Amino acid sequence: MTDPVGKLPSQLDQLPDRDPEETAEWAASVDAVSEHAGSHRAEYLLRRTLQHAESAGLALPRLLETDYVNSIPTSAEPTVDGDEELESRITAWNRWNAAAMVTRGSKHGVGGHIATFASAAWLYETGFNHFFRGKEGDGSGDQLYIQGHASPGIYARAFLDGRLSEDHLDNFRQEAGGNGLPSYPHPRRLPWLWEFPTVSMGLGPLSAIYQARFNRYLTHRGIKDVSNSHVWAFLGDGEMDEPESTAALALASREGLDNLTFVINCNLQRLDGPVRANFKIVQELEAQFRGAGWNVVKSLWGNAWDELFQLDTTGALVRRIREVPDAQVQTYQTRDAAYIREDFFGKDPALAEMAKLLSDDKIIECFQLSRGGHEPRKVYAAYRAALAHKGAPTVILAQTVKGHTLGDGFASKNANHQMKKLTNDEFKQMRDLLELPIPDSAFVDGVVPYGHPGADSPEVRYLQERRAALGGPAPARRTQPLPALPAPAEKAFTAFDKGSGSQSVATTMAFVRLVKDLMRDKQSGKRWVPIVPDEARTFGMESLFPSLGIYSPKGQTYEPVDRDQLMYYREAKDGQILNEGITEAGSMADFIAAASAYATHGETMIPFYIFYSMFGWQRTADQMWQLGDQLGKGFLIGATAGRTTLTGEGLQHADGHSPVIAATNPAALTYDPAFAYEVATIVKDGLRRMYGETAPGEDSDVFYYLTVYNEPMPQPAKPEGVDEGIVRGLYRFNTAESAGLSVAGDASRTQLLASGTAIHWALKAQRLLAEEWGVAADVWSATSWTELRRDALEADAALLRGEERTPYVRQVLDGVEGPVLAVSDYMRQVPDQIAQWVAQDYTSLGADGFGLSDTRDAARRHFGIDAESIVVAALAQLARRGEVSASSVKEARAKYGL
């Protein structure tokens, strides 16, 4: 018997076929249909069969693509629960005011985007009228990730419902006066409206996935039941090119996040032109999402197309729609019916016959006006299908026209993203199209008016009634007054006050021990959210696995290989640790969701995310900015920090610059602690500032970045009275005399400022300077170069206002003798942040350049930051001042082999 499934080898050949004759009959049936009715008929029957098998629950692989038609037939669309006429009028007002706001602002040169909301208006309005839950009630509601360029439409709606005034709209993109509207969703700039910053494209979809996942985490851990919250992410088809946009699709499907819906506005255009000029972006996205396990709903065509599809008895129309590239679809938007007849229908005899049955008006309606994303019934049906689908997230691919209703000058034009205004004549055409009662006389001095039907109009009453039924305004950010978290027991913070004696302890391990103790606290312990990107064992956190558990929505469905060990790998549905695998971006998205839970859900959570310091700010600094913009709180821990403490790993792991990047983020408090007791003091103050009682003038909407080291070192006892210096950034650790070194009373003196692990080299240098060169050195711990700089900048600003204020760094160094030499395991730019405010002679040492693989000692000698290099640099400073002989510098270089 011939091979029933074809001539090519098949993976099924290795499996037994219990009835080869039946298999052959099925194959013969397919061949017969292809021969007598055509290949397209055979393809249709096979797709029908697969669809039936799927609905019957058979476990078959799904097709990655379907035809270029709507997923939901018109006959299956649910009835819209609402007044469609009023909703249409509301949308018309919002379209008008969004365009008016941007056009009026263009006179001030501040720009704005019009075309995006014009294409997506019904995607938002349908959600606001029927689906998006507000925060009144459970305090959580739904989470809305609004596409950044659509913000004018959201402002227009807030104006219609009375949350914004004309003055607000006239201050769009003019924030300096304090009454303006930010260009895009910015919680820090408009914290009562926006919840999530989204215009750094790609971060919105990534964050939405992890927000939906974190919602499940809160519910499963018993913190708060937010199972009714749904996450909606509004995205552009061009935005999906960003790698972050699709980075976590598999996570969403793997964990069955049916509390998540992506709505992708497929207007086929990105910023400069078509998204996929020679291809079809909808089909590409469908295959990508289906392959990742998502439910896909396509809403492509409006009702006008129903007649055409009914005429398509041969399948020619569906085939032609699928083969026409997106750029040509865009061209149809701007050409007349004759062109479309020839170019679209003229390619196939069956289509040419169909076209004879269609009027020019019908062709124009279908190809230029009737899109699924522009018809509220289509959008409503898609949203209902998304909420009804269980077991997987849903993506809605809604086809629209960029610049819809803005006139021929905008619709589908490549340049429309950069077009910031309409002329008065174009506005009047838009008014007539939208049937708005705005007279010509309202255009005073050439200025387009805002439109509003009145606070007591049917439109506004309907809008407000719909929102009241759905739980209040949206979008809205609500920060409920939450009680301060009670301070944990002091015992956890004082564990290292006496030092470690002869035992060497890395500050990474000191931090892990501290947090381990804090998570045992009966009141606040459950609020901690440990996040790690598959490096928990590197950071000594495996002891937390059995006690806290690793979060998994499925729990643990297997017996772990190390089950008989004390620190076995335990997954649990109520697990506390988020072990994300090898994804710093995913871990940061976790952190952001947890860090802003106090606003999103009214629940205080304390996330700490520990990572290789090199793979934090360098790799995900954009997300750190997003975290600050979202007013998130928590602790970022850059472990295995510094350029030279991670032996053997080399350039790609050697962090010499993360504090520089961190210093650019106004919300980040950056610390480079040297000792275990400093780590404890900083964490204690961070908990107070972010979650407890803030001091006057303090901003609690901050997050902390601590660098900790994997180099085990003896931990000294905590000196008396250093807490303020630790928190503010600098204190004197010891003097040559208090260190027990023998120096002459008239010895030259120098000041060594060091941060992080560099303080150990400074202490060795202090001893060498005293014992071998007769120089007295004081050693200072600079826990935060960045906070010292910020304090100094604030002092400078105060002086310009006529206030007397001295920078803290100058206060603590006031009157100390000798030059200042600063050293760290980072590039010199880090300690040089304070140089201009140090009254003494100042110089610095740092690990500039690229990292390398070697021993710690060899790497430090290479960069010139080891103890001996510090000695030579200190002697050179003193020699320039004439306090030691110039020959001593040369002698020291020779002595130490430098």
UniProtKB/TrEMBL annotation:
Keyword flag Ribonucleoprotein: no
Gene3D superfamilies reported for this sequence: 3.40.50.920, 3.40.50.970
Positions of Mg(2+) binding: D237, N267, Q269
Needed co-factor(s): thiamine diphosphate; Mg(2+)
Keyword Electron transport: no
EC number assigned by the record: 1.2.4.1
InterPro entries: PDC_E1_N (IPR035807), PDH/Transketolase (IPR051157), PDH_E1 (IPR004660), PDH_E1_M (IPR041621), THDP-binding (IPR029061), Transketo_C/PFOR_II (IPR009014), Transketolase-like_C_2 (IPR055152), Transketolase_N (IPR005474)
Region (Disordered): 1-20
Keyword terms: Magnesium, Metal-binding, Oxidoreductase, Pyruvate, Thiamine pyrophosphate
Reaction(s) catalysed by this chain's protein: N(6)-[(R)-lipoyl]-L-lysyl-[protein] + pyruvate + H(+) = N(6)-[(R)-S(8)-acetyldihydrolipoyl]-L-lysyl-[protein] + CO2
Pfam family for this entry, one: Transketolase_C_1
CDD domains: TPP_E1_EcPDC_like
Record's protein name: Pyruvate dehydrogenase E1 component
Origin organism lineage: Bacteria, Bacillati, Actinomycetota, Actinomycetes, Kitasatosporales
